[in-house]
Amino acid sequence: xxxxxxxxxxxxxxxxxxxxxxxxxxxxxxxxxxxxxxxxxxxxxxxxxxxxxxxxxxxxxxxxxxxxxxxxxxxxxxxxxxxxxxxxxxxxxxxxxxxxxxxxxxxxxxxxxxxxxxxxxxxxxxxxxxxxxxxxxxxxxxxxxxxxxxxxxxxxxxxxxxxxxxxxxxxxxxxxxxxxxxxxxxxxxxxxxxxxxxxxxxxxxxxxxxxxxxxxxxxxxxxxxxxxxxxxxxxxxxxxxxxxxxxxxxxxxxxxxxxxxxxxxx
Length: 266
Ligand SMILES: Nc1ncnc2c1ncn2[C@@H]1O[C@H](COP(=O)(O)OP(=O)(O)OP(=O)(O)O)[C@@H](O)[C@H]1O
Fold this sequence. Notes:
CATH topology of the domain at 2-88 and 163-254: Rossmann fold
Largest sheet: 6 strands, mixed
Bound molecules: adenosine-5'-triphosphate
CATH superfamily of the domain at 2-88 and 163-254: P-loop containing nucleotide triphosphate hydrolases
Oligomer: single chain
Strand content: 15-25%
Shape: globular
């Protein structure tokens, strides 16, 4: 169980996340939505401790993640893998090495520095690539792959961390619809094996299709938390004061994604 309790983050006078509390049972897939600047990225980054909260706590299975330092903090970051909009692969390295990077924090410093990996780790990396139909690309440079392939490599890299949680911050915002589906299918697949997934999404239709639960933020606060079916177009209008079409177009523009082709009917 991941517990977020009264989490708050200010940047100067601006409150990015404002007293958010959320309990996420193990194995749930949670879609986080909201307009630009609602605080979605900041919330995810506080769970991973890339950003520290001003107030509040994150607990995982009873451990106060907010208080972790040094080795314990590095261990937490390994257990809580991040996926980013821009994939964050090392473009000039081959795909297999990019996936093996997921092991680096798990190993003694010296072997990490030398990028020495065991045969077992290489087999793990190949297996992770294979499950996403990417084994044949293992020796290609990362920059020869399509965006959707690169994002699946990033998920394979995350899996090598043997994470309990995957935090994905707009993982499909740079992808076309077909690649978006392969990436969301990959995330859903690993979630079904028991990994908790928190995913920031600008696209409501995707959040509805793939997530068990949707959390909507507005100005740093939770304004909706429930099953996808309860997030109707009428509810969107109620919590955001815009139509679903307007919400979709604005959210897509904020992340540089193409405008949605079909709005969901009211
Ligand atoms: N490092 C920072 N310094 C100053 N302000 C920040 C910083 N990070 C975020 N903010 C501000 O905090 C608010 C929430 O930002 P955040 O990126 O979490 O929102 P978001 O919901 O992910 O929006 P978007 O989809 O546009 O990225 C915004 O007003 C943003 O400008």
